[in-house]
Write a structure and sequence with these properties.
The chain is an alpha+beta fold and 132 residues long. Helix content is 30%, strand content 23%. The protein has a 5-stranded mixed beta sheet with strand order 2-1-3-4-5. The structure holds tetrahydrodeoxyuridine (THU).
Length: 132
């Protein structure tokens, strides 16, 4: 399990990444941060498109940045948005987290609410790889 200091650092990195969101259609800026097992942090923001279905969530952008930088092993991911409750990842992002066995999911909002969940509780039926 990751400790409180790392959680704070990940949320801070996610907030910084959130400031780069391209979200002219929804107006909802989201930031994410994935922690590679070597300690490297990768931030991501949502990137929307006029063809809405092409939009990509912040979590996937962070994971894809890390994978493109050769990382395959991860300890946790954080996501933050200006939501009433901590921001919950969508099913597509949970599926990508399952691909890379990212179990610890830190969900936060700008008010400072933080919730940590096991990916198995968010997406118990993710396809492809068994996490049990
Ligand atoms: N979004 C994310 O980036 N991550 C989430 O966990 C929730 C949703 C994005 C997708 C879209 O660009 C905008 O937030 C509104 O749904």
């Amino acid at each position: 399990m990751i400790n409180a200091d790392i959680i704070d650092t990940m949320i801070r990195t996610a907030k910084e990444a959130r400031s780069h969101a391209h979200c002219p259609y929804s107006g909802e800026a989201v930031g994410a941060c994935v922690l590679a097992s070597d300690g490297t942090l990768y931030g991501g923001c949502n990137v929307e498109n006029a063809s809405y279905g092409l939009s990509c969530c912040a979590e996937r952008v962070a994971i894809f940045r890390a994978v493109a930088d050769s990382k395959r092993d991860f300890d946790a991911i954080a996501v933050v948005a200006d939501t009433d409750d901590p921001c919950v990842p969508c099913g597509a992002c949970c599926q990508v987290m399952a691909e890379f066995k990212i179990r610890d999911v830190i969900m936060a909002n700008l008010k400072g609410d933080v919730q940590v969940a096991d990916l198995m509780d968010l997406a118990p039926c993710a396809a492809g790889k068994t996490l049990r």
